[in-house]
Amino acid sequence: MAMYRKLGKKADQRKALLRNQVTQLLYHGSIRTTDARAKEVRRIAEHLITLAAKEKDNFEEVTVKAKVARKDKDGRRVKEVVDGKKVTVYDEIDKKIKKDKPSRLHARREMLKVLYPVVEVPKDAAGKKAGTKKVDLTDKLFSEYGPKYAGRQGGYTRIVKIGERKGDGALEVILELV
Q1: What is the CATH T-level fold of the domain 11-58+101-177, as seen in this structure?
Q2: pLDDT of residue 166
């Protein structure tokens, strides 16, 4: 017996499909797919949530000095002339950042192996680059799902059967986070 379902796809296509569905599940909270795919996605997603729950508080806050461009009242950078060239003026500020400890950094990198980058596009600017922003799913896992599922011993997802697909008769389900 195989260790996993092949889903009728070659290895590279199968990996891409599963990565995409895990990413969408963690971003949206639920996806609609076939039963076999849902069971494979569930395995991967629950492993990532377990990593996040174990490492949710494994960081230290560090204060660093950062250079930030000075801005005028309109939000544009302030420039001054130095040796005949326009140069942006920078101010130094103290900034607190979260520094991952080694085991949390390893968990973050394991998550990044699986998750695709997500870009959030506003509905009014569909098809345009303006207004888009990148979503950090690993941070969402550590800050949102980690504390939410910290006291739970597995079973972070639920499969709800919704019937057979009209085209090929495959059993369709909704896979959702509990």
Answers
A1: 50s Ribosomal Protein L17; Chain: A, (3.90.1030)
A2: 93
